[in-house]
Amino acid sequence: MTSEPLTSAQPDGRRHVVVVGGGMVAQRFVEALRARDTAGEWRVSLFAEEPRKPYDRVGLTRYFEVRDAEELTLGDPALWDDPLVDLHRDCKVVAIDREARTVTDRLGTVHAYDELVLATGSNAARPPIPGNELPGVFVYRTIDDVAELRGWVEAKREANKVTTRGGVVEKPVRGAVIGGGLLGLEAAGALKALGAQATVIEFGTHLMGVQVDLGGGQALKRLINDKGIAVRAETATKEMKPHRRTGHVGRMDFADGGRLDVDVVVMATGVRPRDELARSAGLPIGERGGAVVDLTCRTEDPHVWAIGEVACIEGRCLGLVAPGNTMAEVVVDRLLGGDAEFPGADTATKLKLSGVDVASFGDAHGRTEDCIEIVWADPTAGVYKKLVMSDDARTLLGGVFVGDAAPYASLRPMLGAELPGDPAAFLLPEGGGAPDLELPDEANVCSCNNVSAGTIRGAVTDHDCTSVGDVKSCTRAGTTCGACLPLVKKITETEMAKAGIEVSTALCEHFALSRAQLFDAVRVADLHSFSEIIERFGVRAEPSASPGRGSAAGRDSAGLASPLLHRGCDICKPVVGSILASLGNGHILSGEQAALQDTNDHMLANMQKDGTYSVVPRMPGGEVTPEGLIVVGQVAKDFGLYTKITGGQRIDMFGARVEQLPEIWKRLVDAGFESGHAYGKSLRTVKSCVGSTWCRYGVQDSVGMAVELELRYRGLRSPHKLKMGVSGCARECAEARGKDVGVIATDKGWNVYVGGNGGQTPKHAQLLAEDLTSDEMLRAIDRFLMLYIRTADRLQRTAPWVEEYEGGLDAIREVILADSLGIADDLDAAMAAHVEGYEDEWKAVLEDPEKLARFGSFVNAPTTPDPTLAYVAERGQKRPATPEEIAAGPDGPVDPSLTGPVLVAGATLEVRA
Amino acid sequence: MTVTDAHTDPTVDRWTAVCRLDDLVPERGVAALLERSDGTAVQVAIFRLLDDSVRAVQQLDPYSGAHVMSRGIVGSRGEEPTVASPVYKQVFALATGRCLEAGGKTPRPGLGAHLEPFAAEVRDGVVHVDVAGPA
Asked: Where is the NADH-rubredoxin oxidoreductase C-terminal domain (chain A) (predicted)?
């Protein structure tokens, strides 16, 4: 047995708080402590039983979509790198010695504490039904539970394949969930998502009996049935019996004599606080379990606290994350000398099952004396809404929403406050005339993170937030379950309007339209030049700009000033250039379009810091022949270019001067290369792993697919750059989920993920569709890209676009796979036109003397290099000299031989028309 | 083309003929390599506006230190014709060289915040620029 020194005082005088448990509330405690303890008074150690960082248990069902445990990790991962935070994973605490103020972990190590916080949470209950330990009976609590359930259902699906004379028939996997509460319905949704049948067995009279009244429960049953999930209410399970042959769970027998054949059962009947440590440490335990604490969350021992589901506060344990987070904040405040108290539990809940809107808050069952219930029900649509009001019908006491939870976000924070006007107005379908609610500052908007309306308003007025995104990162509102986001958005926008901050989507002073609006306008009006577009849709000059008024310099004044007005700028011109290019208007340097292109597009190369360019030929899928490599190497050598391999599996050549570009392109084009569009807001590369053609593990030809995708979408202009990736198996060596579009091979086809990116705010792409054939996949990507191109904002990458698209990824999926907007044919036709109209932009310039003429260094000396360029040698290549190196003069490191034309032999081009 | 005492002698033509107006694309710039009266080389960015008038400013972008202004996007702020640096996107008035939007950046050490403007005009289809004065 090893042991730390038992004196808790740190050499630096810091005190030590030990947190037992690694769940959501424990994470919140550590996060809040580190945020508020700015003086660094406390060092915190967290002991987690699971081998993971604290993750979002509320979002567990999402694990089926994201399939990546890391994705559910809570908060900023940098928290665990904080030197004052120690995270011990897979390190359960097994004993507490309150006298010595130490805990012992499962490895036998003893750790001293000054203060101890119990956040051990709870266990999924396994009701004492005979057969509850049979193989195939699961609980639904941790990532491992969910992963095991998934594995079981997939194995059963394989086993249920029966070969008949007619071919292979797949018998469905039959699943049942015991418990019709919040968790039970999420588990049933998870079974459906896995392709299993699901029946929910509820002992009580109706689903979600804790949160919803009978009327709401009946409406909810209809909604759940519509999702293909069966419901048996008022049913007690007597026994689960094994299958005769396999010994796995095979049948459920009910008290009413009924029975159900099953392949898998999930028990979701509730949770039990994990209070065994508190018990063995001799702390008082509540009647139904849990460590008893007062309103400061302190147990009987002044140095031991309990928070979250293990705490028995006001006589009960609370199985929701919001009150747990509040408790965490209370204890942090106390440790830092504050006097916070638990304000009472906010038990508002919202079901997170796609397509089923259920929410309740406050006194949902109308148990307050003399209260009035106002109900609005539409049984055919499966809608049930109820408000519980005080006897004078003015104060809001609670509410239930089934089938339409839209009023929930704005009404919940009004709990206990007076509603303006007729309360029934709030229950009518959208636009029913409910007055706008002006929330009091103290109203709690985000219950997960305990953020009030006042805090959100303050974020706008005092912290310069000008978007919902800013407010989210500033206040944490809406960052956990997201149910309050519509309200956060509304408050933010109202406050910005009040503060006189214009909520404008206008591109710039020349266009009042957003990029998406302008795109539609240009497409529908069938316009093809900037002049036509600004004439038709641009902001009009003020009438005061009378004809004949001189330009700013007073030159050329006779009637020539007006054409100069409102001629666009560096914001709107590239946007229009991109829109025109997306709509197929020929070469981007043709005619008037040439003046619209941004720096890099204008030269079809990437400008570097000294004004020279880098050149990237396309290498589709990262594939290149030895001959191709030799050509690239020879070109770089002849033109004295610095070479580097890019992150997108191709080769970048730096230091090319304007006047050299056409000569470089000619050499590359002659060898069969084309522009790699490294300069464009357009498809860059499709990265791939080597795939099934060489790899031992590959299940599909990822390189072949990457080449096909790159050739299909090359040159496609979009609101921002686009990157793609293709992996040949689930090992994901191409890192496709870090791309705007990622394709991962399965043994049945391809999974398509969208909305990923690297960079400053990395995002993993989310699953759009599974097991598609190659043709289905191309169609899905065609539509995804076209929808993005048409509706995204200027410089908005796919990840924020997906997030801000009305209805999110689900709505995008409906447009793409189910043609919910009826525009699929149009999107397909637009992509077909792009594929048909593609041409290599470099080659087109080489063939056009007029365009070629623009690639001279000086109009009066087209082949003279910029005399100010200076380079020094480094690691065998050149790099731009720093100002200090240039200032050092002839004796300095600048090497003139690296600047001059190195080209000895090679093509010469007539660059003057 | 350079005359040694051009700056002080009013009878001497201070204008340099640079190129034909037709060599310029409307609303884009070109670079020209010229010489001041004291014999030092100066790079000038020349822009053709939609009314076929021309403007000239220094080619050196003070915020990046690179000679690139001719490759910026021509536009307008209010009624003022402008050019945006192709490197860090500062916006300058074409007529005066004044920096209208610095984008929170400061010029490189030793360089001013604004561009030096040069008089420019078109005579008989030929663009002329006056760079005779000292820097």
From this structure: 348-411
Asked whether the beta carbons of residue A867 and residue B24 sit closer than 8 angstroms, the reply is no
Q: Domain spans of chain A?
A: 15-123+273-335, 137-160+171-269, 598-675+840-913, 681-839
Q: What is the pLDDT of residue A374?
A: 87
Give the architecture (CATH level 2) of A681-839: 2-Layer Sandwich (3.30)
C-beta atoms of B30 and A552 within 8 A = no
Average pLDDT in the A134-154 region?
88
Helix (H, G, I), strand (E, B) or coil at A669: helix
Mean pLDDT for all residues in chain A:
86
Q: For A10-22, what is each residue's pLDDT tens digit? A: 567 899 999 999 9
The answer to whether B18 contacts A560, with C-beta atoms less than 8 Å apart, is no
* Average pLDDT rounded to a whole number, residues A494-522: 84
Mind telling me how many Å the CA of B16 is from chain A's nearest CA?
A: 11
Please check whether residue B32 touches A, CB under 8 A.
yes
DSSP assigned state of A411: H
Which residue among B28, B65, B76 places its CB closest to the CB of A595? B28
Identical fold at A15-123+273-335 and A137-160+171-269?
yes
**B68 vs A607: CB contact, 8 Å cut-off?**
yes
pLDDT at A555: 36
Chain B CB contacts of A593 under 8 Å are: none
B119 — phi, psi (to 5°)?
-65, 140
Give me the helix-helix angle, A808-818 and A774-791, nearest 10°: 120
Tokens of A528: 């093809």
Cross-chain residue pair B50–A611, CB shorter than 8 Å: no
CB A317 within 8 A of CB A346: no
Task: Find out whether A283 and A298 touch, Cβ atoms under 8 Å.
Answer: no
Residue B8 domain-assigned (yes or no): no
The CATH number of the domain holding residue B82 is 2.102.10.10
Per-residue pLDDT, A564: 38
A552 to B95: CB separation less than 8 angstroms, yes or no: yes
Assigned domain for B135 exists: no
In a domain, B5, yes or no: no
The answer to which of A388-397, A403-412, A480-489, B74-83 has the lowest mean pLDDT is A480-489
**Which residues of chain B have a CB within 8 Å of the CB of A596?**
73
DSSP line for A54-87: -B-STTGGGHHHH--GGGGB-S-GGGGG-TTEEE
Quick check: B53 and A556 CB within 8 A?
Answer: yes
Architecture in CATH of A15-123+273-335: 3-Layer(bba) Sandwich (3.50)
d(CA A263, CA B1): 94
Say whether A551 and B95 touch across the interface (CB within 8 A).
Answer: yes
Determine which of A502-511, A522-531, A796-805, B4-13 has the lowest per-residue pLDDT on average: B4-13
State how far the Cα of A398 lies from the Cα of A832, in Å rounded to an integer: 54
Rounded average pLDDT over A426-445: 70
**Least confident stretch, A39-43, A782-786, B8-12, B68-72:** B8-12
pLDDT in tens, A217-261: 888 888 888 888 999 999 999 999 999 989 999 999 999 889 999
pLDDT at A77 over 50: yes
Does ipTM come in above 0.95? no
Kindly tell me the burial class for residue A863, based on how many C-beta atoms sit within 10 Å of its own C-beta (0-12, 13-18, 19 or more). middle
CATH T-level topology, domain A137-160+171-269 = FAD/NAD(P)-binding domain (3.50.50)
Contacts of A864 in chain B (CB under 8 A): 33
| Residue among B31, B68, B76 whose CB faces A566 most closely | B76
**Helices A774-791, A824-837: inter-axial angle, 10-degree rounding:** 100
Closest CA to A320 of A296, A295, A345, A297: A345
In chain A, residues with a C-beta closer than 8 Å to the C-beta of B77 are 509, 569
Question: What tokens does A8 get?
Answer: 């808790």
